Amino acid sequence: MQQFACCTRLRHGGIRIHIFIAALSLFALARSGAWKQASRFHATVLYMVAGNLLYFFLTTDYLLWAFVPDLHLIPVFTELLYTFIVFPCTVILFLSGFPDRRKEQVWRYSKWVALYAVMEAIYAWSGRIVYDHGWSWWCSFAFDVMMFPMLLLHSKKPGIAYVLSAFIIAALLLMFRVPIWNITMHST
């Protein structure tokens, strides 16, 4: 798959799902009142944003997955919606009021993993996300199972989260044979 070559297969019409999800994320954050605690989770928001930006830097010519944009929007706009709206809202909503009891923690993890898995299944079914180079919905599910505990870990022990993240990134790059030696800087 060339960068976002999948976009030629875009089925126009229907709900503008990516824009809707970004708006819904902002609404959920406002409605929950969790935005009042946003400053507490600023570092973890940046951790998630940096992780997503790093994915695009390392895989720019070898994408494992890509959102198919709504309307005729340029692909990067869709990514920016997720990077700077959906993912920060996710971090704040997931971490705010995080329970102390183990059973409630497992329930919270399960709900968020299920939410992400169901949304991605809808994206895949509707042609709003495409996979390549061995990545699949199951890979995304496994990543989500790992991602939410990493967000909590980063909020409590960022140093350990960064070290573990480096190992996870290296493992994923090797597993999916991402040719990082071919990274080029695209000039305008």
TrEMBL record:
Annotated keywords: Membrane, Transmembrane, Transmembrane helix
Stored InterPro entries: CBO0543-like
Transmembrane segments: 15-33, 45-68, 80-98, 110-129, 160-180
Name under which the protein is recorded: Uncharacterized protein
Organism of derivation: Paenibacillus solanacearum
